[in-house]
Q: What sequence folds into this?
């Protein structure tokens, strides 16, 4: 057992999180007893020796390990199946051009691409700390724990809006302040773009916002469950319009969204395929349907924000965890059905065929995987979603 | 993997309590428990007594001119003949006033699980009493000796920790396990499977029975039967025996909470827990209806030094310790 110098037991939050993934009680106890015993040995080892040992291990592994081979139970190598459409193959953030901070104070920050971030509503929340699931290794949690965001989820606030007219200026500002206060109180998003295109930092970037607890996304390498931890949240002050189900944001908001996305991608190396909308990632664990929230189910201005049309990306919720969609969701999407839905289903079918199971059997198997994860996350209290005026 | 381990070396969890001896083993669909009272009765041999036992189908043995009935049947036999049972253990440890203690425990364990043949066995031992340097080494060493002699590969486990292992998997074995047995209440606060604070309180079911018997002038056995059959917490009792039981149960709860408060507040090794932790109650003394509610109410009113998010009863209060000991053995 690890004790501090004051003879106090040292807590190990990373180990706590790892243990939550182990479903079998005996395996969990075996793991914890072993690791806690190791911890006791580590604490008496000088920090520089631990650092040196870690560096040696990493160096040795990088020298001897071959390149990773795809052996997923979700998608087998060599199949005649395109993982991600060619046009949207992984777009690293490297080609963006670097965005750097030009000026900063407690109240605001100015960036080299013209972005100005207002810090007056900034607030802290729980730190990001998460594991990703390795899609090429049967969805095993990756060894390392992360604290940097890996993607962005775009939301709408679904708050009351005044007509965007000059004579409504006072009302527009009042509504903007009201929604910001509400979001701040509930720690719903990391950034909010108001009707005038002003960017407000709310939840600190290093901290998780309560924006998409029940959510799933997957890129070619990793799957992400509970995007509160792993994805930044950017909300546009906007509302889903009744009738066509689309959202509209004004030119100022589009511009702000573009420069904010550029800055975040540059700062954290976020790949374009991990910049997605809430409707793409939201799931309902109770009925195993996708699209519990449908903000930005259509008309998200991907290209104006410098991104490819990510509605074309396969949905990991369908292929990796066995979720389905229904008519309500298709209505929210509108007539231009996402190509990603079809690709997600095709992935599922390929994985089922490769495993020699029927689609139904395979789906129930991978649903069980999700339920285990969901249960583990639920126990940590990490699935919170704000249920305010916002989506 | 655990299944493989358990198949290769079948393991046993053994709870040697003041009142009962319980074993737990892995079965196809979960766990299998067996239990016997940790008690016996002996009477001078007479053909009349022998014929009564035979007629009543009570297993017995004749030793050195005495008829001995041990285990669960001893209580029925004692009630039948109007005598008190003899107890191999008192206050959680081997009864210093009972010369037959080890022999009788050995016989009961043999009845329950047979010879060891190298099987791994974890048996429960109480923690040292709160605020006392007095240990349980003699008790532990004596039991270890008879179990090893029966052919088991033996390790001991703190009783409160066994409750944690049995019941608190969902919080990754972090929380407080409380076992209120016949002789003692055992408490263990564990963090991630590791015991941080453990102690015992020298009050349990026997204390309640003896105190209530003294107050009412009744036989302890009869009080015990009343307690197990009809007592529950409802605030008002017309019956004198139930009233006395209520008073001494309240004493037990208050003493237990006070001891926990003192032990946790005084401990310098407590981790800085970021979340409230669960507390689970087990043992035969927690069985009366309303015990959990009464305990929780008293705990909430006590300015407890640790935040508790839930107080609950073990799924099977009588088997939790044995199950936890088995889980410890299987996870080795």
A:
């Amino acid at each position: 057992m690890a004790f501090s110098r004051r003879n106090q037991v040292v807590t190990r939050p990373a180990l706590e999180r790892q243990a939550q993934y182990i479903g079998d009680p005996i395996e969990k106890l075996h793991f914890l007893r072993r690791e806690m015993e190791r911890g006791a040995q580590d604490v008496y080892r000088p920090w520089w020796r631990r650092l040196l040992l870690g560096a040696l291990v990493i160096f040795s592994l990088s020298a001897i390990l071959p390149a990773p081979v795809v052996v997923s139970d979700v998608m087998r190598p060599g199949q005649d199946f395109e993982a991600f459409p060619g046009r949207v193959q992984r777009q690293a953030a490297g080609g963006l051009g670097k965005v750097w901070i030009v000026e900063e104070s407690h109240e605001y920050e100015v960036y080299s691409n013209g972005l100005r971030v207002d810090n007056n509503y900034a607030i802290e929340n729980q730190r990001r700390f998460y594991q990703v699931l390795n899609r090429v290794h049967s969805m095993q949690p990756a060894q390392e724990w992360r604290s940097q965001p890996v993607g962005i989820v775009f939301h709408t606030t679904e708050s009351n809006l005044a007509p965007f007219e000059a004579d409504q200026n006072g009302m527009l500002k009042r509504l903007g302040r009201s929604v910001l206060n509400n979001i701040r109180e509930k720690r719903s998003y990391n950034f909010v773009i108001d009707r005038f295109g002003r960017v407000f930092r709310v939840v600190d970037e290093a901290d998780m916002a309560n924006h998409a607890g029940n959510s799933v996304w997957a890129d070619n390498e990793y799957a992400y469950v509970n995007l509160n931890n792993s994805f930044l949240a950017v909300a546009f002050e906007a509302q889903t319009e009744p009738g066509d189900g689309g959202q509209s944001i004004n030119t100022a908001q589009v511009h702000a969204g573009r420069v904010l996305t550029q800055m975040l991608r540059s700062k954290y190396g976020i790949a374009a395929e991990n910049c997605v909308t809430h409707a793409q990632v939201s799931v309902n664990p109770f009925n195993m349907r996708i699209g519990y929230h449908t903000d930005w189910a259509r008309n998200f201005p991907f290209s104006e924000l410098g991104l490819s049309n990510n509605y074309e990306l396969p949905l990991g919720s369908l292929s990796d965890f066995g979720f389905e969609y229904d008519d309500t969701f298709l209505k929210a999407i509108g007539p231009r059905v996402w190509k990603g839905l079809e690709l997600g289903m095709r992935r599922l079918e390929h994985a089922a065929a490769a495993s020699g199971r029927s689609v139904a059997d395979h789906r129930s198997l991978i649903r069980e995987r999700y339920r285990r994860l969901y249960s583990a996350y639920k126990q940590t209290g990490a699935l919170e979603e704000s249920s305010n005026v916002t989506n | 993997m655990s299944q493989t381990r358990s198949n290769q070396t079948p393991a046993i969890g053994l709870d040697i309590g003041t009142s009962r001896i319980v074993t737990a083993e892995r079965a196809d669909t979960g766990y299998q428990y067996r239990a016997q009272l940790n008690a016996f009765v002996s009477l001078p041999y007479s053909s009349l007594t022998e014929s009564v036992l035979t007629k009543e189908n009570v297993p017995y043995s004749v030793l050195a001119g005495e008829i001995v009935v041990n285990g669960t049947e001893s209580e029925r036999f004692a009630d039948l003949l109007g005598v008190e049972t003899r107890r191999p253990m008192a206050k959680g440890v081997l009864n210093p006033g009972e010369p037959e203690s080890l022999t009788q425990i050995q016989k009961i364990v043999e009845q329950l699980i047979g010879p060891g043949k190298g099987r791994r066995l974890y048996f429960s031992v109480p923690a040292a009493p709160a605020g006392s340097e007095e240990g349980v080494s003699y008790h532990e060493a004596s039991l270890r000796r008879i179990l090893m002699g029966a052919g088991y590969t033996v390790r001991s486990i703190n009783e409160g920790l066994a409750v944690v292992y049995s019941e608190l998997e969902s919080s990754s074995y972090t929380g407080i396990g409380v076992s209120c047995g016949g002789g003692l209440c055992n408490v263990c606060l564990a963090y991630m499977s590791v015991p941080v604070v453990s102690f015992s309180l020298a009050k349990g079911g026997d204390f309640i029975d003896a105190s209530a018997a003294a107050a009412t002038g009744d036989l302890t056995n009869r009080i015990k039967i009343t307690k197990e059959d009809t007592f529950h917490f409802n605030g008002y009792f017309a019956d004198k025996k139930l009233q006395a039981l209520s008073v001494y149960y309240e004493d037990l709860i208050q003493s237990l909470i006070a001891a926990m408060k003192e032990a946790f507040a005084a401990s310098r090794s407590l981790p800085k827990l970021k979340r409230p932790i669960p507390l689970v109650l087990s043992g035969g003394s927690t069985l009366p209806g309303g015990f959990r509610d009464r305990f929780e109410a008293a705990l909430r009113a006590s300015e407890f030094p640790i935040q508790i998010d839930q107080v609950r009863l073990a799924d099977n209060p009588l088997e939790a310790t044995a199950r936890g000991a088995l889980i410890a053995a299987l996870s080795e």
In short: The interface with chain B takes residues 1, 3, 6-13, 15-16, 19-20, 24-30, 32-33, 36, 379, 381 of chain A (CB under 8 Å). Residues 359-380 of chain A form the longest helix (22 residues).
